[in-house]
Design brief:
The structure is a single chain. This protein is mainly beta and 153 residues long. It has 2 domains: 97 residues, Nucleic acid-binding proteins (OB fold (Dihydrolipoamide Acetyltransferase, E2P)), CATH 2.40.50.140; 48 residues, no CATH class. It is 13% helix and 44% strand. It is built from 3 helices and 6 strands. A 5-stranded mixed β-barrel has the order 1-3-4-6-5. A hairpin with a 5-residue loop joins β5 and β6.
């Protein structure tokens, strides 16, 4: 078994299906990225796309809580499936069969006119004011400094 641990953002909302026995399955694409300085001194950014499949409880979690752009940690094994299409041609795909999926960012809040990321999300974090803040006294910054930037897709 080849073990994979990936941290990335969902490229689309999970697609849900059921097996013939009723087990829930979800599929989604996951973008992982890296950046480095090339030999010429310029910043190089590279994005890799991965297919992820999850079953059962993990699939239920994905379909309920994950949406395009969410940052997640996926742990599982790499598998290659082969089949023949309707024209009889051999097809194959390599995917990560998820054993564990964990959301790494807060669930985006609905914000009309906003995309749920960046400043709009930060405005909802730590929004309960302490007694000192409501009385006009200043206190250390209570919001988390989250800057997700633009998702890599």
């Amino acid at each position: 078994m080849i073990r994979a641990i990936l941290i990335g953002r969902l490229g689309q909302d999970p697609k849900t299906a059921n097996t013939q026995t009723g087990t829930i399955i979800v599929n989604f694409s996951l973008a992982t990225d890296e950046s480095y300085t090339g030999q010429d001194g310029n910043k190089v950014e590279k994005t890799e796309w991965h297919r992820v499949v999850a079953f059962g409880k993990q699939a239920e979690f994905c379909s309920s809580y994950l949406t395009k752009g969410r940052l997640v940690l996926v742990e599982g094994s790499i598998q290659t499936r082969k089949w023949q299409d309707q024209e009889g041609r051999d097809q194959s795909t390599t995917e990560v069969k998820a054993r564990s999926i964990q959301a790494l960012d807060p669930k985006p809040q609905h914000n009309p006119g906003g995309d749920g990321w960046g400043k709009d999300l930060n405005d909802n974090i730590g929004s309960k004011k302490s007694d000192k803040q409501s009385s006009g006294q200043t206190s250390p910054k209570s919001k988390m400094d989250l800057d997700f930037g633009d998702p890599p897709f």
